[in-house]
Write a structure and sequence with these properties.
about 180 residues; mainly alpha; 2 helices; rod-shaped
């Protein structure tokens, strides 16, 4: 297999695992795995016995530059998306606020300020489940504790009167009862 490549190196040499930095000798070369090797033809450089040559590998630098450019473009795209989404949401909120303002003015024109206040109060009562009816029926009476004369009795008497008027008093001999407010005059 081979040993691991040293940290920070891009090209593998001397049997290390990684991209091999082999110099191709002159002649024809059959590459068994073409995906594994990338070659480039360059002019032959001769370095004399009394000279020093420096070989520079730029492959790693180019890959890093491409990755950096890719990250930069991804960040720019994400920033653009967030910016456009924010603008869109802001416009939506603005339009909804304007529509509510116009609707409120129309309500005031149709119902008046007091009418709108009453409608809004009833909305809150309905949404919050506020009870507006009494839990206890307060009724009057004649002092003997039978509860006579209360609202329930009045409703039953009115129901009975209406039924009697509808049926003609049952046998036709009962006159229609006129409603009273409790006065005996």
């Amino acid at each position: 297999m081979g040993s691991k490549m040293a940290q920070g190196r891009v090209m593998a040499t001397d049997g290390e695992v990684g991209i091999q930095a082999d110099v191709l000798k002159p002649g024809l070369h059959f590459v068994l795995y073409p995906i594994e090797r990338v070659t480039q033809k360059v002019p032959l450089v001769e370095i004399g016995a009394d000279e020093l040559g420096i070989i520079e590998a730029t492959v790693g630098v180019e890959i890093s530059a491409k990755r950096a450019e890719q990250r930069k473009r991804e960040a720019e795209g994400e920033a653009y998306y967030i910016s456009e989404t924010g603008k869109s949401e802001a416009e939506k909120v603005r339009l909804m606020g304007e529509a509510q303002g116009v609707a409120y003015k129309e309500q005031v024109n149709a119902l008046g300020a007091n009418g709108v206040a009453l409608v809004e109060t009833l909305k809150v009562i309905g949404e919050k489940g506020v009870r507006i009816t009494l839990d206890i029926l307060a009724s009057g009476g004649n002092g003997n504790g039978d509860g006579g004369g209360g609202i329930g009795t009045l409703l039953l008497l009115n129901l009975f009167r209406d039924q009697m008027q509808k049926n003609g008093g049952g046998n036709g001999n009962v006159p229609a009862v006129a409603p009273t407010n409790g006065d005996k005059s």
